[in-house]
Design a protein that fits this description.
The complex is a heterodimer of chains A (428) and B (410).
Chain A (H helix, E strand, L loop, with lengths): L15 E10 L5 H9 L6 E2 L12 E2 L12 H19 L10 E6 L7 H8 L11 H8 L14 H10 L6 E4 L4 H15 L4 E8 L4 H9 L29 E9 H6 L6 E8 L14 H14 L8 E3 L6 H15 L8 E2 L2 H4 L6 H15 L1 E2 L22 E2 L4 E8 L3 E8 L3
Parallel strand pairs in A: 4-5, 4-6, 9-10, 9-13
Antiparallel strand pairs in A: 1-7, 1-8, 2-3, 6-7, 8-14, 11-12, 13-14
Helix pairs in contact in A: 2-5, 6-12, 9-10
Chain B lengths: L14 E10 L2 E2 H10 L32 H5 L3 H16 L13 E5 L7 H14 L2 H12 L2 H7 L3 H10 L5 E5 L2 H16 L5 E8 L4 H8 L27 E9 H6 L6 E9 L7 H13 L9 E4 L7 H11 L3 E4 L1 H4 L6 H15 L21 E7 L5 E7 L7
Parallel strand pairs in B: 3-4, 3-5, 8-9, 8-10
Antiparallel strand pairs in B: 1-2, 1-6, 1-7, 5-6, 7-11, 10-11
Helix pairs in contact in B: 3-7, 4-5, 11-12
């Protein structure tokens, strides 16, 4: 095609295309499986069987139990999922598996930390009298016999393994913006292509941290749903009875390319990253400023970066965690940005079905948003039985809905005042 | 780009260092560090053997109230966060952005971080009970919920140094935390430099912090047998005993700024970031040396062929430290391993090196040798530029070249 004006946006920067996507959630091993289950309104939330849950306040999660990673560790499962989604994305982008991806890896991974089985392995065999805090654990480490455990405590280990197999170039970039991390990974990739630093990027989010301490931590912050009796009914974003989020596992990968690069090599253009907005909140470590200023600024920032007006947004893929606080604040922010139009603007939360994939959520939901735009079907917010009268939203209640949607906003918010929003379009 | 290639762009507009905030075992601020590093640095090394056989460089005493006025904020953080928030405040003040300055709301935050801190006493109690009774799951659930505090969880979140900087110093533009051990520091500096260079932002606070005085941190690194477990020796003198790093507590933050923005508000620059490059070599034999050669070629392409002053971020871990030294020797570089004096600060190590380099350029003279290994040759005369290297103890390579800003330019 000779019209090269399509290759730059209104601000004269390269248009960023999505040419490959991979997705793995508790609902399925790939995009197709997850999407099919979502538009059928199925839930991936179930009772935890990975470890005994007696005594825990929350005993349900959206675990990924089909990867054959035994014994479980957050590192091993997060890596296995990241590799699976990256391979899926690379294949869809028509990049041969042996070929490099002509750009960098931008990745969001869960915390690198030792889990209890690892600490116990180090502790095993130490005589009672010689136990002193971590001294004997350090002595065990010093023998060099536990080198295989080092990967769990090394942040670069997952990116390095991914780069080795996928063949990304340069140095991998690892990001943490808490529950907005997956969106930030996409933002960083898109920015790098727009700056002209590189022609392509592999953006990945992965998180498999359903383990006892992970649950206890979020329970301490009273963030989790305790509706353990009916797991598939627990996550109910924007409903009156919502009582917290459900921790879940998942991963997603996107291959981004400049539109010019994608078309030149005949790659499929699945969607476009139009813009990204971010805003730090200085109000509180886990809560938003009550006036929603940072959330609103992040949404407006994304629109501004994309050069779009609020009227051009056809659908919102909400952060929608199902906590009382998030959903209230997100609705307040949406009202400020979309005004009177909000009740007629579909806003749905994937987390009602797949739970909150934490570090991966922004990437997981960006992939689902592009699937939504391509399919012309809005995934529902399930478990919407009792609307919260204060949140007047069209949440696409309970049943998927056909709708022609060209451009969507995907929201991601995280502890530590992190707010990141993406504007994604179907057509270049 | 080749497989282990570097990434770089010409920086337009120029990126200046206009503020530095530094705390370490040597004290706090420009004067304390400059004085200790210029007068027999080797004799000023502060070591602590309370984690014997490991050596750590302990943080100097700080009056936290000076930068973190609210006790409630201090209580909501653990050590690495307090160190970082404190150093960040020093950098902002140094750049002429005091508390209340409206520019703070437009300053982007970029942080290099690792994992948070654990309560090792709680962990030890659980392990002890588990060893006696066997069921870790039940014990964990009984002991952990009682012992963990919500604030401790928040101290374990990697992005909560950045979050606390936003809260304590009222920085509300954007907030990005990079991970990946030394690569975190490299990504942070590179991202800030690229964003300013591309006109995406005008001013960024960037840096990191390490609390070395933690057994959980030591354990994470010792699993890979990375620590120095012998009496003190400078970085270049550890090879015969197998190498290793001695962690140092430090906070290092920089205010980076577009030159036009700095000029317009009359900020006084320390130095210009001329070039930043990064790489990931496989570390197969000879690979890291080749990666460093390429980083130097990229960052130093435009410089004259005078001896290259290098602030090396070498950790002391082998064989990467030896590989770095042989590349630098082949170039007849004048090398200073700042880890010999301050310890290895992992995520904060490249920001720390950039801070020291920028300070030397403001002084107009390189530092005297940091050790008596004979590796570090003396260098007299004017200082026009400094290369800071950062080769990760396991993975990740980066380099930054700083250059002097002549009085006319500023």
């Amino acid at each position: 095609m000779s019209d090269t004006r399509r290759y730059t946006n209104a601000k004269g920067r390269p248009v960023v295309a999505v040419t490959g996507m991979g997705l793995l959630t508790s609902l399925g091993r790939n995009k197709d499986e997850t999407w099919t289950a979502m538009i059928a309104g199925r839930s991936g939330i179930r009772r935890i069987t990975r470890f005994p849950t007696g005594g825990l306040r929350t005993t349900i999660a959206g675990t990924v139990d089909f990867m054959g990673v035994e014994p479980y560790s957050a590192y091993d499962l997060s890596l296995a999922m990241a590799l699976a989604v990256a391979r899926e994305a690379k294949q869809q982008a028509r990049l041969p598996s042996a070929a490099s991806i002509p750009g960098r890896l931008f990745i969001a991974t869960p915390p690198a930390e030792l889990e209890w089985p690892h600490l116990r392995a180090l502790d095993a065999g130490c005589p009672q009298a010689e136990r002193a805090a971590y001294t004997h654990l350090l002595a065990a480490a010093r023998t060099g016999r536990h080198r295989a455990l080092a990967r769990h405590a090394t942040f670069l280990a997952i990116p390095d393994a991914l780069q080795e197999e996928l063949g990304t170039l340069g140095s991998p970039v690892t990001i943490c913006t808490a529950c907005a991390s997956g969106a930030t990974a996409i933002q960083l990739g898109a920015e790098a292509i727009r700056r002209g630093d590189m022609e392509a990027a592999l953006c990945v989010g992965t998180d498999a941290t359903v383990h006892p301490e992970g649950l206890i931590r979020f329970s301490l912050l009273s963030a989790l749903s305790t509706r353990n009796e009916f797991p598939e009914k627990a996550s109910r974003p924007f409903s009156r009875g919502r009582d917290g989020f459900v921790v879940a596992e998942g991963a997603a990968a996107l291959i981004l390319e400049s539109l010019a690069h994608a078309e030149a090599r005949g790659a499929p253009v699945l969607g476009v990253v139009r813009g990204a907005g971010e805003k730090a909140d200085d109000y509180h470590r886990t809560r938003s400023r009550p006036d929603g200023h940072a959330i609103i600024s992040a949404m407006r920032g994304a629109l501004d970066d994309a050069g779009f007006s609020p009227e051009q947004i056809d659908y919102v893929n909400a952060h929608g965690t199902s906590t009382p606080e998030n959903d209230k604040m997100e609705c307040l922010g949406l009202r400020a940005v979309f005004g009177d139009r909000l009740p007629r603007l579909p806003v749905s939360s994937n987390k009602s079905m797949i739970g909150h994939t934490l570090i991966a959520a922004g990437a997981v939901e960006a992939v689902i948003t592009i699937l939504t735009l391509r399919a012309g079907v809005l995934p529902p917010t399930i478990n919407y039985e009792e609307p919260d009268p204060d949140l007047a939203l069209d949440v696409v209640p309970n049943v998927a809905r056909p709708a022609s949607v060209k451009t969507a906003l995907s929201n991601s918010f995280g502890f530590g005042g992190q707010n990141v929003c993406l504007v994604l379009s179907r057509d270049p | 780009m080749t497989k282990s290639s570097v990434n770089t762009v010409a920086g337009h507009p120029e990126v200046w260092v206009t503020g530095i905030g530094l705390v370490s075992s040597l004290g706090e601020g420009f004067e304390a560090h400059d004085a200790a590093l210029r007068s027999h640095a080797a004799e000023n090394v502060v070591m602590d053997s309370r984690f014997s056989p490991y050596l750590v460089h302990p943080l100097a005493q700080l009056d936290l109230n000076k930068q973190i006025p609210k006790k409630s904020d201090q209580r909501q953080m653990e050590g690495w966060q307090r160190i970082g928030v404190y150093a960040a405040g020093l950098a902002l003040d140094d750049a002429g952005l005091p508390r209340g300055s409206p520019l703070r709301a437009h300053t982007d935050v970029v942080v290099a971080a690792g994992s948070g801190e654990r309560d090792t006493a709680v962990d030890a109690r659980i392990l002890e009970a588990a060893a006696a009774d066997g069921d870790i799951a039940v014990l964990g659930k009984e002991v952990l919920p009682a012992a963990l505090r919500p604030t401790l969880f928040l101290a374990q979140l990697s992005n909560l140094l950045a979050g606390n900087i936003s809260i304590v110093h009222n920085l509300t533009a954007s907030s990005r935390t990079y991970m990946g051990e030394e690569m975190a520091g490299i990504s942070s500096i590179e991202n800030a430099w690229r964003r300013i260079g591309a006109g995406q932002t005008q001013i960024v606070l960037v840096g990191g912090a390490l609390n070395a005085e933690r057994e959980d941190l030591l354990l994470g690194y010792e699993l890979g047998c990375n620590l120095w477990a012998h009496p003190f020796a400078p970085v270049w003198r550890r090879r015969d005993a197998g190498g290793g790093f001695a962690p140092g507590s430090a906070g290092a933050f920089l205010v980076l700024e577009a030159s036009g923005h700095a000029r317009a508000r009359g900020a006084r620059p320390y130095a210009r970031i001329a070039s930043v490059a990064s790489a990931r070599s496989s570390r197969a034999s000879g690979e890291v040396g080749r990666a460093l050669e390429e980083l130097i070629r990229t960052t130093c392409a435009e410089r004259p062929s005078t001896p290259l002053p290098v602030l090396s971020g070498a950790s002391g871990v082998e064989p990467v430290t030896e590989a770095e030294l042989s590349v630098l020797r082949a170039r007849a570089a004048v090398v200073r391993a700042y880890g010999s004096v301050l310890g290895h600060t992992v995520e904060a190590h490249l920001p720390l090196g950039v801070a020291l380099g920028a300070m030397a350029l403001r002084r107009g003279a390189f530092y005297p040798p940091f050790d008596d290994s004979g590796v570090e040759l003396s260098m007299d005369g004017a200082l026009d530029d400094v290369l800071i290297t950062s080769l990760g103890h396991w993975r990740g390579e980066g380099a930054v070249r700083l250059s002097r800003i002549s009085t006319g330019e500023a």
